[in-house]
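YM 10:42: N-acetylglucosamine-6-phosphate deacetylase sequence, as discussed on the call
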Amino acid sequence: MAARKVLTGARVVLPTGTVADGRVIVDERGRIAGHAHEGDATVDLSGHWVVPGFVDMHNHGGGGASFTSGSVADVLKGVQTHREHGTTTIVASTVTGDMDFLAQRAGILSELAEQGDIAGIHFEGPFISPCRKGAHDESLLRDPDPADVRKLMDAARGQARMFTLATELPGGTDSVRLLAEHGVIAAIGHTDGTYEQTVEAIDAGATVATHLYNAMPALGHRTPGPIAALLEDERVTVELINDGTHLHPAAFQLAFHHAGADRTALITDAMDAAGFGDGEYMLGTLAVEVKDSVARLVDGGSIAGSTLTLDRAFKRAATIDRLPVEDIVRAISANPAKLLGVYDRVGSLEPGKDADLVVLDATFTLVGVMRKGEWVIAPQEAQRG
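YM 10:58: structure's back
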């Protein structure tokens, strides 16, 4: 059981705005409380920011471990790596594989979701376009037949949170409807669809754009393609990878400002090398080389996920993109929590919610992480009380 504590002196970002010299009270259950008790330990965080723990809805691994192929211990190692970088809630994303293999992985990952180690499963592939396959094995791709989608949903035992689909392929729109009926996010991505086909999929129930811009036709003035359809529709949240590699800063800012802070989700799309380092890795069945923190397929050179962690995405958004901190918090915590259906527990600093939070210094560098009232990384300031 967590010890009661009071975090004081920081700029605390709440849903209603930032409170200067604010405080966050953590109770013995590891939740945010409304009132302090006499004798509660105090942590002085003067000069720092306190923001909600980050929520990553698109992540393939980290710490040298893969969510697609690693053992349970490997998956937990990857989860822990991202926790140490502020991601207190994480969805495990798979990459394209054989259907039976993916069903088996869904069974393993669903147990971790039931235990609360991850927040569910995201199937990125195999239901994507060979024209926009990115770092997915083309030989294993298939059309999004609703029966196949249902097979993976069933294997996930209620823990499937999102499927990325090229909705222009045969069965795409029907699969979107199936997912929507079961409360699972249908995300449009790795698509070669037209503007009109994308609009049709959104009308059928698709609500997320998987890493907008990446693995889809470029925005054109005569053929606007999926990017325009996804950006303009108020029903769609757009994922953005803010690592400086996947997106030019101007493209990032165009999307963020057009969709708005309430329709943007900052993600990592991280692979094994996140928080681990350069070297050679496998992403599903494909060999990847990570050099200077950029992951690319050995064969062909396509970008193969990222080595991003969300603390770096936050800092970049604040210091390079110059976004308001409150907007970054919505995109990195609240919005994905709402999409995943867990906003009643995480995604904001409010009484009754889990005490999941990140402490940042004045330069937006991470100095502390708390999950459910326990420090994952404790700030260096001395505790007193």
